[in-house]
Amino acid sequence: MTESVVVTMDGVNAIGNHVAVTTSARLHMGFFDLNGGLGRRFGSIGLSLKTPQTQLEVFPSTSLSVEGEGASRAAKIATALLKNLGLPSALHIQIKQAIPEHSGLGSGTQMALAIGMGIGEFYQLDLNVNEIAVLTQRGARSGIGLGTFAQGGLVVDGGRAAESKVPPVIARADFPEDWPILLIFDKGHQGVHGQQEIDAFRNLPEFPAEHSAILCRHVLMQALPALAERDLTSFGAAIRALQEITGDYFAPAQGGARYTSKLVAEVLAHLQLGGVNCLGQSSWGPTGFAIFENQSQAEKHLKQLDAIFADHLGLSFVLTHANNAASVLKKTS
Fold it and tell me: What is the CA radius of gyration of the chain?
């Protein structure tokens, strides 16, 4: 449903120079050091996607107004950012597309960064992604969304130290764009977010240091070398290790299960039995993912899933690919 939010009662005059921003969803494939015993906590690996996307435009106006999907959320972000920067609320934001909210695909971070970069360009400010993240309170635990916005591709962040403003990106690589990625959506569920997410991290027990050591090894000595050698089997084994160990750790916050959605869990189990090696849940879900070596393999599995799960309302599938490019920012007149 299209929303429209007007922060003041003045009319909109969306003419003249304007800024367009396009950014992509991301997969958060897992944390690898939830223990933090070495002084840095979290650390994560993730991937930028071609779709879904957030697209918005910023126009001059006599007041702040926002229209489109997710307008209420966007208006709060823009209002706070303009106030923090001491800027006039003289713009209109039109949201053309938006990544689904609370789906595990980074919608909040990508919306905040898109609005921040759009406003920065509109007012000719020299703001970078990390500065906007701090101003909009994004990147509290993961730097994946910041890294994929700025660079695209597969990103590894180094977690947060006590004085970290945002988690630093410590590795970035192109991801094979000929490896199709299946997204598994369950519209009947939302991922853990907001206060519920804060409470989950506060209440979960200490993550075992030996588990962090194992997962760091999987990332450094399996996932990244496998990607360099285009070895999806080994890359998938590393991702499954992250998914299994961290998923079981987060289970108490996810209804007692490794995956948030029972339907998505059923699909992932079917794919794994069918020989798919790289799969899991993105962030808190409910969106699941699976990665294939070629298009024919992906389409074969998708056809099977469409037939087997045809009666499950709310369940849907989308084939996409990796996005190895940075977000797009254009100023036009």
Answer: 20
